[in-house]
Amino acid sequence: YGDASQKMDYVFKVVLIGDSAVGKSQLLARYARNDFSLDSKSTIGVEFQARTLLIQGKSVKAQIWDTAGQERYRAVTSAYYRGAVGAMLVYDISRRQTFDHIPRWLEELRGHADKNIVIILIGNKSDLEEQRAVPTEDAKEFAEKEGLFFLETSALEARNVEDAFLTVLTEIFNIVN
Ligand code: GDP
Ligand code: MG
């Protein structure tokens, strides 16, 4: 409704990237709708979901984009990255290969996105501790070297998901203010 108090102060586009099946769509579902599905179909068509939040008294619309199941190298188009001010670079802590591909994703991101884009590295599926294939320390070290934020999350258990999005959105907010 046209209530002046609901006027949006900012719209921030944030993109999710990373290998197939690391949990990008479920992280988005958890953040945008507090929903989770164990048998999520692979994403069809580029889509985004929005969530509105208040940061320091300003209303911010987070427009979070999810890949169209185009996770193969160079399949994500430049339109996907256009205008993005934040990026969540996601791997699965139980599959080493998804972490080994992170430098490639980072290179692609840096090639397409604004150079001031805020990036967080996310080790998802932290609930699968018994199957862990990526030590936290390795990821932390990589993130520090590359100047990225870093968190381990579980979309399944809703662990650190809010924090991950809030970290990126607050940092973007601080940059534009
Ligand atoms: P995407 O291809 O990166 O979008 O991955 P999806 O979000 O479709 O998730 C792939 C699979 O991993 C699905 O079966 C999800 O239910 C599962 N999944 C996603 N997040 C988690 C998580 O945090 N923990 C566990 N155990 N499974 C997850
Ligand atoms: Mg998906």
TrEMBL record:
GO terms for molecular function: GTP binding; GTPase activity. It comes from the Eukaryota. One of its GO terms (cellular component) is endomembrane system. It is a lipid-anchor. Keywords: GTP-binding, Lipoprotein, Membrane, Nucleotide-binding, Prenylation. This is Uncharacterized protein. The chain holds residues 6 to 182 of 224 of the full protein. Belongs to the small GTPase superfamily. Rab family. It is found in: Endomembrane system.
